[in-house]
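Note on ligand handling. Small-molecule inputs were canonicalized before submission; formal charges were left as drawn, and no protonation-state enumeration was performed. Where a ligand contained multiple stereocentres, the stereochemistry in the source SMILES was retained. For zinc ion, this procedure yielded the string shown in the input block below.
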Amino acid sequence: MPESLAELEIRRAAIQSEFAHLGDMRSGSITGTGGRCGNPRCHCHRSGGPGHGPYYRLTRKVGGKTVTETFSSPAELAKAQREVSEYHRFRDLGGQLLDVNEGICRLRPVEEEEEAPMVPEKKRRKPSAKRSRAR
Ligand SMILES: [Zn+2]
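Structure output:
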């Protein structure tokens, strides 16, 4: 069922208002890995023993290079997970906003310009006239 231009504009306004409520965001992805700690007497250093983990780290691209961050506390990890998931929401909303705009552009009728830019003006134009009328 194709939506009307007015419906698409309502949907676009809803998506735009969701953008306004996005929280702190950061790019990257968080992955968990197992591992051994720095204490050589810990059980994880015994041969065949299980490592610790999973340890979480965030990787992201900075200027074409992959940068890794580790987290010193569960709270820090939880904060980063919130920030990264907010980023993914931002990306998702951005895709939705583009989709709805492409629909709007297809349906938006071509309107004659009030002032055709290729036609020379008779005398003087008032660029402020349109703006002050719109207020
Ligand atoms: Zn250990």
